[in-house]
TrEMBL record, chain A:
<comment type="similarity">
    <text>Belongs to the YciI family.</text>
</comment>
<feature type="domain" description="YCII-related">
    <location>
        <begin position="4"/>
        <end position="107"/>
    </location>
</feature>
<dbReference type="InterPro" id="IPR005545">
    <property type="entry name" value="YCII"/>
</dbReference>
<dbReference type="InterPro" id="IPR011008">
    <property type="entry name" value="Dimeric_a/b-barrel"/>
</dbReference>
<protein>
    <recommendedName>
        <fullName>YCII-related domain-containing protein</fullName>
    </recommendedName>
</protein>
<dbReference type="Pfam" id="PF03795">
    <property type="entry name" value="YCII"/>
</dbReference>
From TrEMBL, chain B:
<dbReference type="InterPro" id="IPR046531">
    <property type="entry name" value="DUF6596"/>
</dbReference>
<dbReference type="Pfam" id="PF04542">
    <property type="entry name" value="Sigma70_r2"/>
</dbReference>
<dbReference type="Pfam" id="PF20239">
    <property type="entry name" value="DUF6596"/>
</dbReference>
<feature type="domain" description="RNA polymerase sigma-70 region 2">
    <location>
        <begin position="10"/>
        <end position="74"/>
    </location>
</feature>
<dbReference type="InterPro" id="IPR013325">
    <property type="entry name" value="RNA_pol_sigma_r2"/>
</dbReference>
<dbReference type="InterPro" id="IPR007627">
    <property type="entry name" value="RNA_pol_sigma70_r2"/>
</dbReference>
<feature type="domain" description="RNA polymerase sigma factor 70 region 4 type 2">
    <location>
        <begin position="102"/>
        <end position="152"/>
    </location>
</feature>
<dbReference type="Pfam" id="PF08281">
    <property type="entry name" value="Sigma70_r4_2"/>
</dbReference>
<protein>
    <submittedName>
        <fullName>RNA polymerase ECF family sigma subunit</fullName>
    </submittedName>
</protein>
Length: 139, 385
């Protein structure tokens, strides 16, 4: 099994096919979309492939260390960050092919006019922790 | 005073208890759920009050749980039939029962991850939570994975002896791909393989057990306190577990004497040759190359040929090692790490540094990536010095 992160973006991903912002949908379309996402997560839980998922608010700031005894420096929020992550789901699946298949399904969530959004999702494999490995010795 | 709970003893009783329920007519899936509930109850109750007859206790509790669950579903007639049977502890588990469980849980219709999870629960006697923790997934996800696996094998017929190779493969995965949490899966894999070896006389089962012991023996020396990888060549060999090595070597020799070589025996033989060298410089690389040749004939796996190239590099020099890499796909995991190592030995530090850095970018394990990054950094910061 291998874990993958499915990243959903507010911005920074290529334009979706059905590219209408959510606030221009009907309330029913919003509900249908949310239901699709919840059902998707429930199906993954049922298939034993769900690890976790969450959504992020769009507002964020930058923070950095500013030296001993000083409070951290903050900057932002910026209205126009290039890349903005909306949320994620972590899955634990048998193969890369299965991860791609699931990402495709998630991207089919309905949007405006009840039609699939075809939004671009980012798929990233996890770096595993180190297990025992009897096949390879490190050099 | 509460008695310390002997969890290993408790776990070792689980497959026998499960077999008794199945022999009494309970279907596997329901019986397994009931045994899991009895196990959780035992983990709760036994530390204060361990029963005199632990197995009898487990059978009684599991059977009661099974009847409770059945009551809500099955017909009245069936329930009365079952309730009429007196719950006895029954005879000691027969070897066949244990084997049957191993085969069922490693059934070829299951995905490797499902077979591993089901084996750990039904044969290993681990709780769903312990298994979930070991594979870093939520308990609900692991519970679903196990119940789906049970549905998959529910129609499986095992009137034919199963294939030992499938069971061995599953145990190998448990040993290699678990993490250390509440339960140490490598130790658990050794326990389950040892138990299998007493139930079936098979040289590859013995080979796998030897392989596991020989690797486990080196484990204290494999990682530094900060979690970083310590390569075999620089491990502190005084930290190897010599008793475990001796046991592994003895098991391996008995298996090899039967002249039915298999890949696990060959892998164990390589591990034994490493274990046999008091210092890295005394490693018998020529013999190791010969074992890799055997292994290549048995499996023809590119990973084996990659490891063989390292051994050739030690036996005949880095140029020979690099030549042995010819024909292998550079996209193979760890190809770059091996090539980098051989190039450095050959004196080409610039190429080695570049390859280590690229290998780090492509690594799929965290500790491995860090190790490769350090190798690249070491060469980059001292190359001109």
């Amino acid at each position: 099994m291998a874990k993958y992160l499915l990243l959903k973006h507010y911005r920074g991903n290529p334009a979706a096919v059905n590219d209408v912002p959510m606030d221009k949908w009907t309330p029913e379309e919003v509900s249908a979309h949310i239901k699709y996402m919840n059902d998707f997560a429930a199906r993954l839980e049922e298939s034993g492939e769900f690890v976790s998922g969450d959504a992020l608010a769009p507002e964020g700031i930058w923070v950095r260390y500013d030296g001993e005894g000083r409070p951290p420096v903050t900057d932002g929020p910026f209205a126009e960050t290039k890349d903005l992550i909306a949320g994620w789901m972590i899955i634990d699946v048998d193969s890369h092919e299965r991860a791609v298949e699931l990402a495709g399904e998630l991207s089919a969530a309905p949007g405006a006019n009840g039609k699939p959004i075809h939004e671009w999702l980012e798929l990233r494999p996890f770096l595993h922790m180190a297990p025992t490995d009897t096949e390879c010795e490190m050099h | 005073m509460r008695n310390a709970l002997n969890e290993t003893l408790l776990r070792s009783l689980i497959p026998g208890v499960l077999a008794i329920l199945v022999r009494r007519g309970a279907d596997f899936a329901a019986a397994e759920d009931a045994v899991q509930e009895a196990l959780i109850e035992a983990l709760r109750a036994w530390p204060g009050d361990q029963p005199r007859d632990p197995k009898g206790w487990l059978v009684t509790v599991a059977w009661r749980r099974f009847l409770d669950a059945t009551r809500s579903e099955a017909s009245r007639r069936r329930r009365e039939d079952l309730a009429d049977q007196e719950p006895e502890a029954g005879p000691a588990t027969s070897i066949d029962d244990t084997l049957w469980l191993y085969f069922l849980c490693a059934h070829p219709s299951l995905s490797p991850a499902s077979a591993v999870a089901l084996t750990l629960r039904a044969v290993g006697g681990l709780t769903t939570r312990q298994i979930a923790d070991a594979y870093l997934v939520p308990e609900a996800t692991m519970a679903q994975r196990i119940s789906r696996a049970k549905r998959t094998v529910s129609g499986a017929r095992l009137d034919q002896p199963g294939d030992v190779a499938t069971v061995v493969r599953v145990l190998y995965l448990v040993f290699n791909e678990g993490y250390t949490g509440d339960v140490d899966l490598a130790t658990e894999a050794i326990r389950l393989t040892r138990q299998l070896a007493t139930a079936i006389d098979h040289p590859e089962v013995a080979g796998l057990l030897a392989l596991m012991l020989l690797h486990q023996a080196r484990r204290p020396a494999r990682t530094a306190p900060d979690g970083s990888i310590v390569p075999l060549a620089v491990q502190d060999r005084t930290r190897w577990d010599t008793a475990m090595i001796a046991e592994g070597v003895e098991i391996l020799q008995a298996a090899l004497a039967r002249d039915r070589l298999g890949e696990f025996q060959a892998q164990a033989a390589i591990a034994a040759l490493h274990a046999d060298a008091p210092v890295a410089g005394e490693t018998d690389w020529v013999q190791i190359v010969e074992w890799y040749d055997e292994l290549t004939e048995l499996t023809d796996s590119p990973v084996v040929r990659l490891n063989r190239a390292v051994a050739v590099g030690e036996a005949d020099g880095p140029r020979a090692g690099l030549a042995a890499l010819a024909g292998l796909d550079p996209e193979l995991p760890r190809y770059l790490a091996v090539a980098a190592y051989l190039h450095e030995r050959d004196g080409d530090r610039v190429t080695a540094a570049r390859m280590y850095a690229e290998a780090a970018r492509k690594a799929s394990h965290l500790a491995e990536r860090d190790h490769l990054t350090r190798q690249a950094a070491r060469l980059n910061t001292s190359a001109n010095g």
